[in-house]
Records
---
Amino acid sequence: MSEDTPKSTHFGYKTVEAEQKADMVAGVFHSVAAKYDIMNDVMSFGIHRMWKRFTIESAGARPGMKVLDLAGGTGDLTAKFSHIVGDKGQVILADINDSMLKVGREKLRDKGIVGNVNYVQANAEALPFPDNHFDIITIAFGLRNVTDKDAAIASMLRVLKPGGKLLVLEFSKPKHDIMRKVYDLYSFKVMPKMGALITQDADSYEYLAESIRMHPDQDTLKQMMVDAGFEQVSYTNMTDGIVALHKGYKF
């Protein structure tokens, strides 16, 4: 955590000690890990697959590249990248949560994906990789859970090769009032009930809805990436801005 990190931070709408947040987030994902994929499909009506497919296409991965799938969870992006980079490439599925990492490892091994994928439990704020190491880094639906987002973005910049690319896929802010109202109703009334029904855990999905609202909007996140040293930073809104894909380069 950087020296400028505040002593308190947000856990959803609650204010908590910054040093407590990682453990609290870990509790959420320990709880939902086993049914994470099912909930993703149910909650997004399967649209998350389209968002991830667009991320893969935007990454421009090629055979032989080194890719870091950060906060990679159950490995949806890792599986795709593994096929693209081939035997001479490498994909690292990294997640701070060991429960999510175990689910991802089992899922990918069941699919026969073993040769070019490694698994690392890692904190995005202090990545345990060499400088200038990866061609591509993706972080999908993970940045909003990081305590010190500026430190994490700086850490990602450090481990990217010159010419490398960062892609941040994250929930963001809908562009239109009608969509915002529908989205709020769905997030705070429907999602927790679905969480209770499928995972017996409504509280975790209340946190997830709140964490989305506390995450920086599209332009704020873009400026954070610029301030960290990324260049040619841009973003693409999807589903009216419910989700945005930010992209930046290291030169």
---
Amino acid sequence: MKTALLIGSTGLIGSHLLQILLESENYNNVVTFVRSDSGIKHPKLRQHIVDFDQPKSYQDLIKGDDFYCTIGTTIKTAGNKEAFRKVDYQYPKQFASTAVANGVKQFLLISSLGADENSSNFYLKTKGEIQSFLKNSDFESVSIVQPSLLLGDRKEFRFGEQIGAVLMKTFSFLLLGSLKKYKPIQGNTVAKALFALAQKNKKGFAIYESDALQQLGS
């Protein structure tokens, strides 16, 4: 039996993933790191309320088998580029660094289609930089998932995403062949795909785009 570790457990994908992990017979412990009490209770759940900016205070708690990183924000929600980069690059990097030092074998990360460390787009550049960091890490297995536009109920309202989701769903039948990866995808489907990838435990570094996630999570 294994221990799953998770940051981002209150987000769209993370909340679905947490339920999957708690219901799975593959894990006897599920450890989450949160800023405030989620209110979720379960015999398998160990919730640690931590200050993400003080990694030394919780580094000894990062012990297990599979680390799922579903944390993420937008520049608008974060307030500025620096705050966005802290959530989408600094936090995943510091958790991953400690996890690999503590013997965690597998790391799975939510990224974005088009992520590229050489991109002129700050959002995609940041996503690409954390991917590059993980590619050069010492984990036995790293899985990067790149979903397209996410569908599902968020705790925070994102007007642009709502408009985009309506338009993409309307015209998604036009996205065929190599364009299939741009079809919107349900957050719950991405969570199921993450879980499936972790159970495969494929050695090395791999990136899975949205069309592959749709198959894995169906």
